[in-house]
Specification:
The chain is mostly beta strands and about 270 residues long. Helix content is about 10%, strand content about 35%. Strands 10, 11, 14 and 17 form a four-stranded mixed beta sheet that branches. It has a four-stranded antiparallel beta sheet with strand order 13-12-15-16, with no helix packed on it. The chain has a three-stranded mixed beta sheet with strand order 8-1-9, with no helix packed on it.
């Protein structure tokens, strides 16, 4: 039966335990026929990607654990000229170290950038799902076992059907059908601080609207005059800020290709 990973980004606190556990398990350890030793540096078969977005003081860090997606239709396997890549019954995609000739075609083809080249051994390498552990009675890969917040869970696809329901795959447009699913992937944000320049005070409870296409979001400034539109899709947004006794402030076609801090926003009295 096929195994799957489900990663809840909302539970990840950026502790790097998954990345360190993977390194501890594979660096310097020969787990043939599954894998040759991972180099001490330069490879992260489980990698915690962190992205800092926004600008001071509206800054947030997004954490996303990433690994080989163990695709149902692995393009790396299709391009390998030496039949060194195979798919196990449990769904793990394995690069056979004994058959790999180091042509690097698999790494070039992988849209997830999850395949590394070992210069010393002249072979391609990546996450094996800790197949050496599972085949010897262990229930979990090391990254899953060591996650202190249970942000990464692992098991049979049928058993985790409820967790997979509504989850996302990375780059679904590739059509590779990954076996790694994500929940609560952080989106972009638009934020700012609204204040009255005459009174030199922040304005509380100001109505703020964000509109993109037919979608309307509404929020109000908090006790610090701050407002946040969180987890926005990438696109164009119009933002309107409205308070009784003040002229409306409008921002048009804000592009959320990155997080946006509108800074301190002064409202002019009517």
């Amino acid at each position: 039966m096929s195994k799957v990973f489900v990663i809840d980004a909302a539970k990840c606190n950026g502790c790097y335990s998954c990345q360190m556990a993977c390194k501890d398990e594979h660096a310097g350890n020969d787990w043939m026929p599954y894998s040759k030793p991972q180099p001490d540096i330069g490879q992260f078969w489980m990698k915690l990607k962190d992205e800092t977005c926004g600008s001071v003081p509206k800054v947030r860090v997004k954490y996303t654990p990433t690994l080989c997606n163990h695709c149902e239709k692995p393009v790396c396997k299709d391009v390998c000229p030496n039949d060194a890549i195979y798919v196990r019954e449990d769904g793990f995609v394995i690069i056979d170290p004994a058959r790999c000739k180091g042509c690097k075609k698999c790494a070039a083809a992988c849209p997830y950038e999850a395949i590394y080249f070992n210069e010393g051994l002249a072979i391609s390498q990546k996450c094996t799902g800790c197949a050496h552990l599972l085949d010897n009675g262990y229930e979990l890969p090391r990254c899953v076992e060591m996650c202190p917040t249970n942000a990464i869970i692992f098991g049979e696809a049928d058993a985790l059907a409820d967790d997979v329901l509504g989850a996302q795959m990375l780059k679904p447009e590739e059509g590779l059908h990954p076996r790694v699913y994500y929940r609560n992937l952080p989106g972009q944000f638009i934020s700012g601080t609204v204040y009255d320049p005459d009174a030199e005070e922040v304005l509380i409870g100001v109505r703020c609207r964000a509109i993109s296409g037919g979608k309307l979001l509404e929020t109000f400034t908090d006790a610090y005059g701050d407002f946040w539109f969180n987890d926005l899709a990438i696109g164009k947004w119009d933002v309107f800020i409205e308070a009784i006794g003040f002229k409306q402030k409008a921002y048009y076609e804000l592009r959320t290709t990155e997080c946006i801090n509108l800074g301190d926003i002064a409202l002019e009295k009517v």
